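Give me structure tokens for this 373-residue protein.
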Amino acid sequence: MPVPSSMAQSRYQLVVTAPGDVTPAALAAVAEGLSRPVPDVAGAILRAPCVLVDDLDAETASALERLLLGLGLEAGITPHADPVAPPVALDVAVRVLDVACLPEITEGLAAFLGTSPQQAFALLATPPGLVLGGVGEAAVASLARRLGAGAEVIAAPRDDGPFDLHLAPGASLPNRLLPRLGIASASRREGVLPLGLSHHEARGLWASLGRTAGVQLVNRALLRWDLVLTTAAPVDSCHDPVTLDWLSRRFGIPEALAPRVLTQAPLALAEGWKTPEAEQARDEALGVGLDVTLEPAGFSRAGVVLVTPGEEAALRSVLARHALSVPARLPAVLAADLADLEARLLAHELARAGCRTRFIEAASPQEADNDPR
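Here you go.
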């Protein structure tokens, strides 16, 4: 955007409006050119729109704008001291929808964050897949464009809440906090505890938790939910016209197949729904007499059982990539306790190798060793 010659004596500021397609290497070059720390420059750009450089003459402003545009940033020139409204600070999570796209998603996220693919995968596999904090809407749009349709990029205002508590397997809350949270000692369990805390309350709790391992506060708006049939439906419900009609309308389950589906608990009737839709479906299910719960998507852990081996060379290649051994007999538990994304990836790669697998509830290594399957 050339500056008119009639305004050449005015002063200008360079405004970054979006990260665009800039790479971490380009950000480092910009930071070096501005003699500023890379984290400061990267943070400012992720919070775009922002004033990157202020109080410039026309020629310098135009040259810097051309440079930034050439590096893939979206930028423009505005008059010196013109206000730029700061964006709402957003926290961002990524949910992998299509595990077949995981290599591209991982590479895209790594390139966006300036990390290794291994670090990017670790972020994706740690629920709820939180990858960015305190960024602007422009950064969210840029990330979503880079990751493609195989991933859902979820953003939520970081200060809004409500916030819930997540306990990793084996983690527990300090006893001194249980009365404050209204949790009985006997009810402690892994998973998401729906506390519904405000941002202020969440900050206070986090300060009290200190360095408690395996415990994190999660913004509920970043979660997606699975509607799980927890127990088999009574015989009457399996053939109730109202229940069968609801299953058909809600999930497209043919009425002829629905009675069999209702006996297969535990079974996910729906996966990855936003909170309002999931809560409505849960209430409808309870209304027709089904025993269902909402479980946060991606937080569960699972084991993977190899049922049939497929092509031997392909099987060995997949297992080698995951540092697993070829079992002596089948069926066999290949991995007893994997994060949801890790289990999905392993099962997908084995399926491509012609193998048949099934998921089981996560078990300790000792339990897996004693499993006769």
